[in-house]
Amino acid sequence: MVTKMYAVSGMRCDGCVTNVKNTLKNIPGVIEAQVHLSEPQAIVSMQKEISLSELQQVFSEGGHYSIAEIEEYKAEVLSAHAQKKGFNKILGALHAKKDCCK
User: Cβ-count burial of 96 within 10 angstroms (0-12 exposed, 13-18 middle, 19+ buried)?
Assistant: First the structure.
């Protein structure tokens, strides 16, 4: 068994968490998936390692969520931090509409 941690982007509410968790659990070879919104990440236990490209493919077919290795994600977040200041208002408006996980 292999357990890996991934960053998940695109989640904004508990419904998104459920969608991501169900998507992961439906991938052949995934034994268990824990998904957290407070730190947007997933801990995935697999029978054998599933490549990141395979996981990304499943999420790209499903819409607006994406998955990345934690180190890759941290680099993206740090480089985008300056752009995020005005994004919080937009994010709040999207969350209020509850259309983020449809």
Answer: exposed
Structure tokens at 24: 């992961």
CATH T-level topology, domain 2-97: Alpha-Beta Plaits (3.30.70)
d(CA 18, CA 72): 24
What does pTM read for this prediction?
Answer: 0.69
CB 66 within 8 A of CB 59: yes
- Write the pLDDT tens digit of every residue in 68-94: 887 654 545 444 544 444 444 444 444
Question: What's the token pair of residue 59?
Answer: 């999420």
Q: Identify which of 12, 63, 18 has the alpha carbon closest to the alpha carbon of residue 40.
A: 12
Which 3-state string (H, E, C) describes 34-78?
Answer: EEECCCCEEEEEECCCCCHHHHHHHHHHHCCCEEEEHHHHHHHHH
